[in-house]
Protein: Phenylacetate-CoA oxygenase/reductase subunit PaaK
Amino acid sequence: MARFHDLEVKDVREETSDTVSVAFNVPEELSDAFSFIQGQYITLRAEISGEDVRRSYSICSAPKEGELRVAIKKVDGGKFSTYANEELKAGDVLKVMPPQGRFYTELDQNNAKHYVAFAAGSGITPVMSIMKSVLTEEPKSNFTLFYGNKNTGSIIFKEDIEDLKNAYVDRLSVYHVLSRENPGADLFYGRIDEEKCGRFCQMLFDPAGVDEYFLCGPEAMIKLVTNELEAQKVDKKRIHYELFTSPDQPNAAQHATSRKKSKSTGEKVDSAEVKVIVDGEESIINIASDGDSILDAALKAGVDVPFACKGAVCMTCRGKILEGDAEMEKNYALLDEEVEQGYILTCQSHPTSKNVTVSFDE
Ligand code: FES
Structure:
């Protein structure tokens, strides 16, 4: 089960007026636990105004850089992001969960691939890690980045991207797309959507010649770009995406308030007895099927279950159904095979049978 470790903040660097990047000192004994793959994220935890706040942030450094660094953009009303931008400083200690996530493909120095990334705002964070890793570890691969922002001033890692362009002039192409500042060409003015993506495909790259696509930004951008790429006959398997929900927004999905139908019996259940197994310890919790998620019910019952985003994205709350059934409201993290094997995101799951056993140890 995922655990938090105390890590000291090495430095806090201002990237734009509303974004900082935060690096951590990782002690020798935790270096294996905190080794990471390009594109992964870590979950941070701090007590802010008496509240236990947890948020996941993508790593912007490349594994070979020997540094664990994330970028944190301040969002309106965001507890953690405001704290990180306004108060956090070198020497502070945060609770940090080891890196997680699947937003990557295996790198190989013999690869001669073309990667295309679409990022918007702080969606650049994991893309930076991927882009740097591809350019340094795959000398025969090319990378094309489309990066959407409001204006020039809001471009995160602007200078780092320029430096990369200069260092890899033959293998890296970068196109900035601005929504509130006309860069002088209509093609790059506006938001990254289906129409823009279609024009980029026509004018700037051949979708048939691209090996991997990486998409990171708000859900709308990911959907629109995915639609267009699929319309261009791009194989779904080549499209990798990392959704960022604004972690301080409440879960947008309303879970059904009606009683849920059990898959196994065909009967509706009003409530269920849920056995939760964590670190080999069993707890029994009664949950109304239109009430709390399994995760929330377990937390209210005082069970120390792991979680971070509560938004179906980070997978920290993953459990496996050993008995009974449950239904997920949303799932952006689990693969189809995992769902078939009985894995659930407990933050999204409601029991749909009278008795359910969920293990966090599987
Ligand atoms: S807590 Fe992040 S997916 Fe459930």
